[in-house]
């Protein structure tokens, strides 16, 4: 199931803002051109605006009320709650637009719970910086956290949340900081060089849930090989030890080497591998149950539509080859609407290779030092040996 409808593009902070709503429209058009929406087993459903009680599964009533006030009166911001700031400018209808994105992830959770979907995708979601009482980093309501909480309310005992955005998933982590039922794993550029400045190895969860917050704080410049080495050195082991019943993942594609806001060096090929790896973990440990969301990503024409179309394709069980041609009708649309040449292939034509952690720890490698810091901080809390498991 894919949560998508054109009304989702109402989440629009205005001209020049990096969070361009065209990201969603272009992704939907590319997925359609690739035939993904026409597959017999794939349904595309437009989400409704989430209700206040639904939003209050993770947000305070006071915050929801504040968003409603600013939404109705954009000239009266509430900067203490992150509303009407440079990152999150106020706009008329902001509540409804943000709550519709939230509704998409709640729809995904509902269909996982009732068994009508095994995999569900909301590429318009992934608003992982929003906290219980505050908007932050282009994010008003935290739809990913809402999906996790809805699963828990529906009887799921454990959820693993995997966040591969270039930015630390701080909002989702904070919401479940003291909840031992939720394992939050975030792989991101180091807070030393990127917003929000958090997400280091020693951030491991609250007193009631130590070890359930996991952070891989990767150095700026990390490319496919280092990123995938880090992922496979930490994530599968912890997911296996934790034993989730559902995986919820956030697939911000701002880790790409051409993203204008970040400093990682991944390719679309590497991002596709990450999506595939998360899907395989869901198959192995969760009976396939998987909710995937979008997130950041600010190279709107070249990267976001391809990366998220790969995500949809993997979730649909019909992966698109990296050497496949980008459909001509989609390329023509991009040129006509934006006056820009679209990529010719679905991948970046790179050599995708990484060293397995079993090869051994190299203390001279900055990525390896990051991995070992995380393994030392968290692995023993799950009964794992940081050196060998």
UniProtKB/TrEMBL annotation:
Pathway: Ketone degradation; acetoin degradation. Residues 17-313 form the Histone deacetylase domain. GO terms for molecular function: histone deacetylase activity. The keyword Metal-binding does not apply. It comes from Arthrobacter nitrophenolicus. The lineage of its organism: Bacteria, Bacillati, Actinomycetota, Actinomycetes, Micrococcales. CDD domains: HDAC_AcuC_like (cd09994). GO terms for biological process: acetoin catabolic process; epigenetic regulation of gene expression. Belongs to the histone deacetylase family. Transmembrane segments: none annotated. InterPro entries: AcuC, HDACs, His_deacetylse_dom, His_deacetylse_dom_sf, Ureohydrolase_dom_sf. This is Acetoin utilization protein AcuC. Keywords: Acetoin catabolism. It comes from the Bacteria.
